[in-house]
Specification:
Structural class: alpha+beta
Helix content: 25-40%
Oligomer: single chain
Strand order of the largest sheet: 3-4-6-5
Largest sheet: 4 strands, antiparallel
Distance between the termini: 64 Å
Order of helices and strands: EEHEEHEEHHEEHEHHHHH
Strand content: 15-25%
Number of strands: 9
Shape: globular
């Protein structure tokens, strides 16, 4: 690739449009994907003065996506490799994309890529952006696509950011019709958001559309999800109805499972279990109680 001056104009080739587009215009699908990926797997660090860099380190098998990022970036950048010992392999080969230009780092920071530690503070962009491409970038970097040990399709995302988790639940809910609630796991305080079976198929088909920029292996996995069919003897369980604060207040005020069941359109067993969980502190009390 030809060398570029560090202060090159903030535009990049756009072959599909026959011209150029502004660097990191998040309404452009490839840039939206790239930004989601960088928020999840990139690291922006400051040096003395105006020095600093943005880096992404991936397994060497995924170097292709780093080359795409380099192609999309109208500033000088490098891709290097290294081999090291990890907890999982005696010899792990990785590829590192490094971007030093101050203009590029400033743009990324303004869009919402913080300097230093960022796992809990990242959030979706505030301005207009290509939503499904942004989320695909997140899932390619910090998620999984494939089949469970039981052979069921799944799409998942692991994130420490409540903003990212809530946005995925909101967006995926519109696509799949499946509601998810956020709860950090007890072990490492992150959110593990999972969509399975038909919901996973719908989400994967929507996110990994033909011709999209993505990791080759995850695009292949997403396409493979479409081969699954629900066995004839596997019943479809209705999506679990979540309790709201308003329902909890009614339940506690009535103090009677049968009355609450009729009032709330739920079963007596459901009301009994919920009231027990509230009384024992296993579920937080609703606000205002």
């Amino acid at each position: 690739m030809a060398e570029r001056e560090p202060n090159a104009p903030q535009c990049a080739p756009d072959e599909s449009r026959g011209g150029t587009t502004e660097f990191m215009d998040l309404e452009v699908p490839d840039y939206a994907y790239m930004f989601g990926f960088l928020q999840a797997d990139g690291h922006l660090s400051k040096g003395t003065g105006q020095k600093g860099r943005m880096t992404v380190e991936l397994s060497a098998r995924d170097v292709g996506i780093l080359r795409e990022f380099q192609r999309l970036t109208p500033y000088n950048s490098t891709i290097s490799g290294r081999t090291r010992t990890t907890n999982f392999a005696a010899s792990h080969e990785s590829s590192i994309w490094s971007l030093y230009a101050l203009d590029a780092r400033t743009k990324l920071n303004q869009l919402g890529l913080p300097y230093g530690r960022k796992s809990r503070t990242i959030a979706p962009p505030r301005g207009p952006f290509s939503q499904r491409d942004y989320l695909r970038g997140m899932i390619d970097a910090d998620g999984s696509v494939g089949f469970t040990a039981q052979g069921f399709p799944f799409v998942s995302l692991t994130t420490a950011s409540a903003s990212i988790g809530a946005y995925l639940c909101f967006y995926a809910g519109k696509i799949t019709g499946v509601e998810r609630s956020l709860k950090r796991n007890a072990r490492d305080a992150v959110f593990n958001i999972l969509y399975a079976k038909e919901a996973a198929q719908k989400l994967a088909r929507h996110l990994y559309y033909p011709g999209c920029l993505s990791l080759d292996r995850k695009r292949t996995a997403a396409q493979a999800l479409g081969t699954w069919s629900r066995p004839a003897d596997m019943r479809i369980a209705p999506d679990r109805r979540r309790w709201t604060d308003a329902e909890d207040r009614v339940l506690l005020a009535l103090g009677n499972d049968a009355l609450a069941a009729r009032e709330l359109g739920r079963t007596e067993k459901s009301c009994h279990i919920r009231r027990w969980r509230l009384r024992t502190g296993k579920t937080p009390m609703p606000t205002g109680v």
